[in-house]
Amino acid sequence: MKFLLGFVFGITLITSCQKKEKEIDLFNGEDLSGWHIDVPQMDTIPDSTNPFVIRDGMLVSLGEPRGHLITDKSYSDYKLLIEYRFPGRPGNCGVLVHASKPRALYQMFPKSIEVQMQHGDAGDFWVIAEDIQVDRMEERRGPKAEWGSTEDKQRRILNLTDSSEKPLGEWNTMVVACVGDEIKVWVNGDLVNYGYNATASIGQIALQAEGAEVEFRRVSLTTIDVLPD
């Protein structure tokens, strides 16, 4: 009987772990199901172009008008995998984690922690009405007196290396792992940032339209319990 109970417990544990690590495709390759758009210009100019479109099976941020594509659901304790590229000129974009209150900064950006995708700076943190700590904080963020998470404050935290991106036009893989109050970022397999004591640990995920066209061919999420090495 004890053997049988142990066997059943073991099978249940394995099944639970397998379920826990199931990958979820946030982008289905066909439409924007599971997402909603927040583009301030569309409030006053209803016939504005939607900057988020599906093209050739890819999710494309056209860059203008500026705004965000935001998941309907909130998530915590996960590994987010994104494959992206700038097909034309280099430019700016980002993925926002732990997003909550919309338009919390400059009446545009939701309260969140941004992981930068800007060409040449992939992996920087930008705090948006939230905050996070890193090692060598003053070296990477500037004088402590200038730190802050709102307008006119030093919100940028430099990554550990700017040499991990592929040449313009090639596909990059970014992994953002969030567990509790910690966040790790990899670009093409290189660990480029690690933060802790984040002021948020759950929220929506957002992609930006921020001036440049960006193609996404994969956006997937896997729930995890432990931050990967």
From TrEMBL:
Source species, domain of life: Bacteria
InterPro entries: AL/BT2_dom
Coiled-coil intervals: none
Domain 3-keto-alpha-glucoside-1,2-lyase/3-keto-2-hydroxy-glucal hydratase: 24-221
Listed GO MF terms: hydrolase activity
A family per Pfam: 3keto-disac_hyd
Protein name: DUF1080 domain-containing protein
Organism (species): Maribacter aurantiacus
